[in-house]
Amino acid sequence: MKIGIDKIGFAAPDYVVDLADLAAARNIDPNKYKLGLLQSEMAVSPVTQDIVTLGARAAQAILTDLDKTQIDMVIVGTESSVDQSKAAAVFIHGLLGIQPFARSIEMKEACYGATAGLSLAKSHIAQFPDSKVLVIASDIAKYGIASGGEPTQGAGAVAMLVTANPRIMVLNNDNVCQTRDIMDFWRPNYDKYPRIDGRFSTEQYTNCLTTTFDHYQQKTGKTLADFAAMCLHIPFSKQGLKGLQAIGKKDPESLERLTERFHEAIVYNKLVGNIYTGSIFLSLLSLLENSRALKPADQVLFYSYGSGAVCEIFSGNLVEGYQDYLQPDRLEVLKQRTRLNVSDYERIFFEEIQLDETGSSIQLPEDSSPFALTKIENHQRIYRKA
Ligand code: CAA
Prior knowledge:
Elements (H helix, E strand, L loop, with lengths): L2 E9 L3 E4 H8 L3 H7 L4 E4 L6 H10 L4 H6 E7 L10 H9 L6 E5 L5 H15 L4 E10 L12 E11 L4 E3 L4 E4 L5 E2 L8 E2 L1 H23 L8 E4 L4 H12 L3 H14 L1 H6 L6 H12 L8 E8 L3 E9 L11 H6 L2 E2 L2 H8 L21 E7 L2 E6 L1
Helix pairs in contact: 1-2, 3-5, 7-8, 8-9, 9-11
This protein binds acetoacetyl-coenzyme A (CAA).
The site of acetoacetyl-coenzyme A has 27 residues, from α2, α7 and α8.
EC number: 2.3.3.10
Family: Belongs to the thiolase-like superfamily. HMG-CoA synthase family.
Pfam families: HMG_CoA_synt_C, HMG_CoA_synt_N
């Protein structure tokens, strides 16, 4: 049975900061961000937009009423959870009006969670071919003002509908994972921002890739020559490029082709920043919507990496007519976001919800987005759908 991605959607918050402005404010050469990190802009989420509202918005963009009656599992992968106990998927299930007899869960392993969700969705469809699974990767990447990771921050969500006989991409059964108990990027329960061993994290990203790819090649017999394109986890675009170069150095011909596709696969990531679990799938969306070189049946290689660390290499094949299920004007939509100066970015991105003695929010800013957090009442988050 063919199982894979039938639909894919994306949502970013409506605010953005130009990294040239951030560089000027931090007294850093703008080329460090533009060329050194290969990033141009970063999405900024106000306090009324969290992983629930962004996830619901990404999913709402692709789901029909019929889909909502057929989905029987909602999986949200995230690093930036809103609750230690209740799954964001339960809030999203409610906001979208998905039929009640569904399983809704959250998965965590840094930037890898949604990839695990995709595998679970695939197994579920193999068992129940008539069902549909909604997999959402939703994150807000915040490192703090003037921190090393600040120019790689971002926010956004990717939603994928996983079904039998998918219309965009068939996922193959060639997955190879690796787990390494390391501390390269982590966030203790008492911390707002992650703790990072920056240089070590970049080395681990690449070493996990090269060692897992060796194992993948041994297991599957596939080589880089078999792939039309590669999508990697993109904490910042230069990291993905370095990863590709590390596995491609023994095959310059494939590396040249995959590098051309790579630049098409980071068009959106450069404008949004890191969205942790969703970054690899935003890269897929960018590839599909910005490449004219791809053909049906082309095979795409994936490298998912979550610090801590778990990684996975897998592949998928494009389905004839996949272009009909995309959104060709997405770049235009991204250009319409409100540009913030650096002091407004600092005020909006790092604003904290103030609670009174009953656990209720004082007053949240107005937000006209399709889904928004309106208030907290007795420690309960209250969302509204426009
Ligand atoms: N012009 C052009 N390039 C310049 C430059 C200039 N004026 N100044 C510096 N650069 C280049 C540097 O040469 C370097 O490029 P190379 O790595 O190719 O040599 C690049 O810009 C970055 O410079 P630094 O290494 O000096 O930057 P830094 O130390 O300030 O920070 C970082 C880099 C450690 C990655 C930091 O951004 C960070 O901590 N990021 C968060 C952690 C992260 O993203 N890790 C990635 C792997 S972990 C993961 O993937 C999970 C996840 O999502 C977090």
